[in-house]
Amino acid sequence: MDAILADPGVRIVVCCGSGGVGKTTTAAALALRAAEVHRRRTVVLTIDPARRLAQALGLSELDNTPRQVKGTSAELSAMMLDMKRTFDEVVLAHTDPAKAEEIFANPFYQAMSSTFSGTQEYMAMEKLGQLYAAGGWDLIVVDTPPSRSALDFLDAPQRLSRFLDGRMLRVLLAPARAGGRSVFNLMTASFGVFARAVQRIIGNQLISDLSGFVAALDSTFGGFRQRAEQTYRILQADETAFLVVAAPEPDAIREAGYFAGRLAAERMPLHGLLLNRVHQVAATELTEPASLAAAQSLAAGGEHPVTVDALKVHALLARQVARETEVAARFTVEHPSVPVAEVAAQPADVHDIDGLREIGVSLSARAS
Ligand SMILES: Nc1ncnc2c1ncn2[C@@H]1O[C@H](COP(=O)(O)OP(=O)(O)O)[C@@H](O)[C@H]1O
Ligand SMILES: [Mg+2]
Questions:
Q1: How confident is the model at residue 126 (pLDDT cuts 50, 70, 90)?
Q2: What is the domain-level CATH number for residue 244?
Q3: Residues 246 and 308 in one domain
Q4: Three-state secondary-structure class, residue 81
Q5: pLDDT confidence of 157, banded at 50, 70, 90?
Q6: C-alpha distances in angstroms, 192 versus 108, 132, 196, 218?
Q7: Residue 120, domain member (yes or no)
């Protein structure tokens, strides 16, 4: 991990993986280490930090711009994605203020900008594109949304394109251009039938809201898609390093394998598997059976009760470590060329700068 964080050619690190595996935590820890140890001007874009972690990073002001993190003297900024506000910024950047106002006021925009499935993924990419374009950072570390599907982040640009290019949208566009030209004339006729049916059900106002929204959005079509595709290409470039984060558990490892395959298919540069919450034993030579046997014989003599307990705990831990090693190997067998770094399971949740620092140390100490 240190080699990646120190490499001046690496400008973007993306932490992806299924939900709950530690993407947000490791993204913050990697960013902190890049800033403190490798002296790189770093910004971390978090999506959904736990409340206490957000506080520790100084993310109480939700103004959608990076702020210097207070608990460190290194150049580390953090921000939390505000999906709605990012969408607003996109609209403002691509239309004139009057058009923008019209879009903001539209109930369809309001619904889509806060709940449209895929919006969070797309806006994370949009924000990444903005940070990248703004310059001023040596390294941008990106957390990814807690999607049900671990692949949504990659799908975002195509999905948005599909939505904006969709037949449905084009059909709906027709009435706003009534009296307009060519292609739309045919559709206008069928839309008339469709619109009358819908009007009966949902009412007039809604229809004019929708066609107004779509007409306004139409003027920004090129902008939206172009930027999504631009960011997509940045993600494919050599300066980007994808890390798949996983816990050493069957479900997470299976998803990690799938993700690695998908990244390869998209020609996205996968630089490593970050195995998070890995357990360790202090005495590696002492096997589980040997530990249990020793505990048994000591207990039989009625001596050293504390040692007996310690041996039993060691045996449990040794079994866990063996199971985790076996599960992690499933990934390595399928993707032998992907390096693996491990992060030790911490005794408690990670919610402050010191905790993040510990994760960073763990990351660089235990490479395999
Ligand atoms: N190595 C670790 N040791 C102990 N707790 C961890 C570790 N990594 C993450 N956690 C905890 O697990 C929870 C989920 O982590 P988070 O980073 O929010 O996951 P994700 O972003 O993938 O959903 C958080 O409470 C976090 O503090
Ligand atoms: Mg998260």
A1: confident
A2: 3.40.50.300
A3: no
A4: coil
A5: low
A6: 20, 45, 6, 20
A7: yes
298 CB within 6 A, ligand 1 = no
DSSP class per residue in 225-242:
HHHHHHHHHHHHSTTEEE
Residue 53 alpha carbon, nearest atom of ligand 1:
27
Q: Is residue 229 part of a domain?
A: no
Same domain, 268 and 292: no
Domain membership of residue 264 (yes or no) is yes
User: Is 57 a residue whose pLDDT tops 70?
Assistant: yes
**Can you give the pLDDT at residue 207?**
54
Asked if 317 and 333 sit in the same domain, the reply is: no
- Indicate if 85 and 49 belong to the same structural domain: yes
- Residue 138 alpha carbon to ligand 2 centre in Å: 23
pLDDT-above-70 percentage for the chain: 76
The answer, yes or no, to whether any atom of ligand 1 lies below 6 A from the CB of 146, is yes
Residue 254 lies in a domain: yes
All residues with CB under 5 Å from ion ligand 2: 23-24, 48
Question: For ligand 1, what atom is nearest to the CA of residue 359?
Answer: 1
Q: Is there an atom of ligand 1 within 6 Å of 113 CB?
A: no
Task: Report the alpha-carbon angle 156-252-54, nearest 5.
Answer: 65
Residue 158 has pLDDT above 70, yes or no: no
Domain shared by 313 and 242, yes or no: no
Q: Name the residue of 275, 349, 358 to mutate for ligand 1: max ligand atoms within 8 A of Cβ.
A: 349
Give residue 328 CA to ligand 1 midpoint distance, Å: 18
Contact between 335 and 322 (Cβ < 8 Å): no
Q: Does residue 214 carry a pLDDT above 70?
A: no
- Mean pLDDT of the 323-343 span: 95
16 close to ligand 1 (CB < 6 Angstrom): no
Q: Which domain holds residue 78?
A: 2-156+235-281+328-365
* In a shared domain, residues 247 and 294: no
Nearest CA owner, ligand 1 atom 11: 349
Burial letters for 1-30: b for 16+ Cβ neighbours within 10 Å, e otherwise? bbebbeeeebbbbbbbbbeebbbbbbbbbb
Q: Which of 44, 259, 350, 362 to mutate to test ligand 1, by most ligand atoms within 8 A of the CB atom? A: 350
The H or E element spanning position 273 is strand 270-278
- Tens-place pLDDT, residues 74-98: 999 999 988 888 888 878 877 788 8
